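Internal ticket #5521
Category: modeling
Description: The requester needs a full-assembly model to guide mutagenesis choices. All entity lines are attached below as received. Residue total reported by intake: 416.
Assigned to: D.W.
Attached entities:
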Amino acid sequence: MRFSGFRVIKEALTGHKGWQPLWRNPDPKPAYDYVIVGGGGHGLATAYYLANTFRKARIAVLEKGWLGSGNIGRNTTIIRSNYGLPGNQPFYEFSMKLWEGLEQEFNFNAMVSQRGILNLIHTDAQRDAYRRRGNAMLFSGADAELLDRDRVRDMCPWLNFDNARFPIKGGLMQRRAGTARHDGVAWGYARGADRAGVDLIQNCEVTGFRIEEGRIRGVETSRGYIAAAKVGVAVAGSTSRVMEKAGLRLPIESHVLQAFVSEGLKPLIPGVITFGAGHFYVSQSDKGGLVFGGDIDGYNSYAQRGNMPVIEDVIEGGMALMPMIGRARLLRVWGGIMDMSMDGSPIIDRTPVEGLYLNAGWCYGGFKATPASGYSFAHLLATDTPHETARHFRLDRFARGHVIDEKGMGAQPNLH
Ligand SMILES: Cc1cc2nc3c(=O)[nH]c(=O)nc-3n(C[C@H](O)[C@H](O)[C@H](O)COP(=O)(O)OP(=O)(O)OC[C@H]3O[C@@H](n4cnc5c(N)ncnc54)[C@H](O)[C@@H]3O)c2cc1C
């Protein structure tokens, strides 16, 4: 079944009886060539590209809950490629290009909306840093524009330009950035993978790995043993716990990040805006709710919920930037578990166990990476070589001292 405007009209006129489930619900088979652990955005995208681009077969995705129950359905939906370091920027720009053709490619409405992202500048030193970052973006083929204060004021006259501590002096704009509907992305990849023959197996928790003579043989699951020639793990916030079962200790900590949605308001925010003097970012959903977030909770946790002090901190950031946000009522708050790496950048690599591969360390920026992460992980699984844009995301970079520390924070996962 293909989706199209014609199809929507036809179904509307015939009582919506022709729609079919987006994917099958198969039982696990005894063996696969490729098993992907984790049915979040990255796991589903990996299976999609493995089957559709790299033409591999006998693939299963094992998800302990339901598809999209993790961070892919919990994030604030921002997509962008405004990174500065050569290890990161080409990868995120590759992702941005995949986003731009994604809905046509997998024939599903993921509501990709390129309304732009504006990073606000509050000091002269920050302007220098953003100019440098903008130039790095241009070098990788991305778009970037440095805006002065008047141009920012034309776009968002309601921002607090004259805040005594954090006056707004301009902004770095990426117009091709924006938002996408997070669970729509998971459903689109799931449907596309299923159509290519991938078994998407829900309620199937991986509880252990069978490893013989340093080589993966299969996975133990809550639905029995499944043999596999290659296993790719993409479980985001659960990475340390899952990889521990393979005997691996990783440079990753798990932290909680919360998201916030206000009541519906008239259209106000043109795209995504980030506060440059504190941690606060905001966009507006198509239903009118202000969608915003800030810092992680700051302590290690596997709980998918956060605490009040961070709620207060995030709202204070919002008030400093746009005081009228204090008049809006908060409707919903929730949390997700972030796989924070030591340098704030991801890992897409083999592991010391032959046939076991790792996709992790997305911190709170992995949604925008979903297409490129899935593509690169599929490339690695299919060819045993890293995709050129992901070649710096090696597991041993911490031992080698080749970290990709975008924020310059050092080995402090809670600060990336
Ligand atoms: C509040 C919040 C806001 C965010 N905002 C943004 C944003 O604006 N932009 C951005 O780029 N990123 C953002 N992120 C980060 C982004 O959502 C994540 O980095 C990304 O979704 C992680 O990859 P994933 O989708 O594969 O993870 P998940 O969806 O978490 O997928 C992992 C899956 O693995 C499953 N799993 C775990 N253990 C097992 C097991 N033993 N067996 C089988 N399955 C298992 C889980 O159930 C889960 O479904 C945000 C995250 C949060 C929580």
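Resolution: model delivered.
Comment from assignee: The pocket of flavin-adenine dinucleotide is lined by residues 37-43, 62-65, 69-72, 74-78, 205-206, 234-238, 242, 257-259, 293, 336, 362, 364-368 (CB under 6 Å).
Ticket closed.
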